[in-house]
Specification:
The protein is α+β, with helices and mostly antiparallel strands. It is about 50% helix and about 20% strand. It is built from 12 helices and 12 strands.
Length: about 400
C-alpha cells in the first residue's frame, strides 16, 4: 500500500517514479534496523549440560591422570569409580563399580576407608605388598570437598598410594649393616688391638714377634676389608632387587672366563675345574658382571670346601622347552641336610672355624641369592654327606 501511495504522489507531482522507489527502500531498511531483535521470553534449559556440569567425576579423573602415584576415586559404598594410569600399572585394571576389596583385601585398609566415610576425616596407614616384589606404601584416604554435598551416598573419596619402599629398604639396610658389621668386626678388631698392645709392650724388642704379629694383623685387616666390600655389594643389590635385567648374556664364554680367573686358586688347592659346555650358544637375560660374581662365588666355594674331592665339575645345560641350568658339583664332604635351607642367610656358616680358616665372610651365598632373585632365577642345593654337593642355578 505504501508503495502504491508513493507512486501515485509521484505521478501526480510529476516526479520520477524511480527516485521514489529508492527512497521507499531506504525507509524500509531504517525501519527494520531500529526494531529490537527478537528475544525469547524464557531461555530453554539444557538438562544434559546441567547434569554434566553437576558431575565432578570426569574433571577429577582427568586431573588424577597427571599424578604419578597410584590413586583411586571411590564412593561411600567402597566401589571404585575411577583409577588413574599409575594405579592400573601398579595393581592391575579394575572395572568401574568393582568393590575396593576385589584388589585390596587388607582389613586394615578397608577399616580405614570405612572410618573416613563415617567421619569425613582423612586417615592414613602403612601397607606392605609382598608380590611380585616387596613394596611398602603409605595409604591416605580423604573426602573430596564438594559444594552442597554432605557425607553420604553422593560423596567421593580419594585413596592415594605413596611408595616408600626405597626409604624402608635403606632404613633396613642401615640397621642390618650396623648389627652385622658390629658383630663380625668385633673379633678382628679385638685381635688387632691385642697384637698392637703386645707390640707396644712385651714384644717391643722382639723382631721375630714383630714379623709374626704383623702378618696376623695384615690377615685380620684384609678380612675386615672383604667383609665391608661384601656388605656394600649386598646393599647395592638390594637397592635394585625389583629391577629385572634386560641384557642378553651368553653363558659359555662367561663360564670360561670364570674358570680362567679361578685357575690359580684351584692349582694352589690341588683342584681341577672341568667345564661341560654345549656346542650352541646358551643365552639368558641378565647382567654379565653380576652373573660372573654368582659363578665365581659358587666355583670358589666348591674349590675351597670340596677340595678333598680334587675335582669340580661345571655343567651348562640348555634343552629345548626347558630352562637353562648351570650346575657346580664337587666331590667334597657334603653338607648335613639340616644346614641346607639356611645356607643363603647372611653370616650363616656350617662350620664357623672352617669358614674363617678359608677366609670366608659368610656373605657369599647371600650375595648369590640376591643376584638370582633380581634375575628371576632359582638356586637349588643338593648335598649328601660324604658324596659331595651340587649347586644348580636355574634360569
Amino acid at each position: 500500500m505504501l508503495l502504491s501511495l508513493c507512486a501515485a504522489l509521484a505521478v501526480f507531482a510529476g516526479v520520477d517514479w524511480r527516485g521514489v522507489l529508492i527512497a521507499w527502500l531506504l525507509l524500509v531498511v531504517v525501519t527494520v534496523v531500529r526494531q529490537p531483535a527478537f528475544l525469547p521470553t524464557e531461555p530453554v534449559p539444557d538438562e544434559q549440560a546441567k547434569e554434566a556440569d553437576a558431575d565432578p567425576l570426569p574433571l577429577i579423573g582427568a586431573t588424577l591422570e597427571a599424578v604419578d602415584m597410584p590413586v583411586f576415586v571411590i564412593g561411600a559404598d567402597l566401589t571404585v569409580l575411577h583409577q588413574n594410569r599409575a594405579a592400573e600399572k601398579a595393581f592391575g585394571a579394575l572395572f568401574v563399580g568393582a568393590h575396593l576389596s576385589a584388589r585390596l583385601r587388607s582389613p586394615g585398609i578397608l577399616d580405614m576407608v570405612r572410618e573416613t566415610v563415617a567421619t569425613g576425616q582423612p586417615n592414613q596407614i602403612e601397607h606392605s605388598e609382598r608380590l611380585p616384589s616387596e613394596r611398602v606404601f603409605i595409604l591416605r584416604v580423604a573426602p573430596v570437598a564438594l559444594e552442597d554435598v554432605t557425607p553420604g551416598s553422593d560423596s567421593l573419596y580419594v585413596l592415594a598410594f605413596r611408595d616408600v619402599s626405597e626409604l624402608r629398604r635403606i632404613e633396613r639396610m642401615r640397621s642390618d649393616f650396623v648389627a652385622n658389621a658390629s658383630h663380625e668386626l668385633r673379633t678382628p678388631l679385638a685381635s688387632l688391638r691385642g697384637f698392637i698392645e703386645t707390640l707396644q709392650g712385651p714384644a717391643r724388642s722382639d723382631p721375630l714377634a714383630h714379623e709374626r704379629f704383623l702378618g696376623i694383623m695384615f690377615d685380620q685387616a684384609t678380612r675386615m676389608s672383604r667383609l665391608v666390600d661384601d656388605l656394600l655389594s649386598l646393599s647395592r643389590l638390594e637397592l635394585k632387587a625389583h629391577i629385572a635385567p634386560d641384557q642378553t648374556v651368553d653363558l659359555k664364554p662367561l663360564i670360561g672366563h670364570v674358570r680362567d680367573t679361578l685357575l690359580p686358586l684351584a692349582e694352589e688347592l690341588g683342584v681341577e675345574i672341568r667345564t661341560h659346555l654345549p656346542d650352541a650358544k646358551v643365552e639368558v637375560l641378565g647382567d654379565r658382571d653380576e652373573l660372573v660374581q654368582v659363578f665365581e662365588n659358587l666355583i670358589e666355594n666348591a674349590c675351597k670346601y670340596g677340595q678333598e674331592g680334587k675335582v669340580v665339575d661345571v655343567f651348562v645345560r640348555s634343552e629345548p622347552s626347558q630352562p637353562v641350568e648351570v650346575s657346580v658339583v664337587d666331590c667334597g664332604p657334603g653338607i648335613p641336610a639340616e644346614h641346607v635351607p639356611r645356607l643363603t642367610e647372611r653370616f650363616y656358616r656350617v662350620s664357623v672355624a672352617d669358614s674363617r680358616s678359608k677366609k670366608g665372610t659368610g656373605l657369599g651365598l647371600a650375595i648369590v641369592k640376591h643376584i638370582l632373585t633380581r634375575h628371576r632365577a632359582r638356586l637349588i642345593v643338593k648335598s649328601e654327606v660324604g658324596k659331595g654337593t651340587a649347586f644348580t642355578v636355574r634360569f
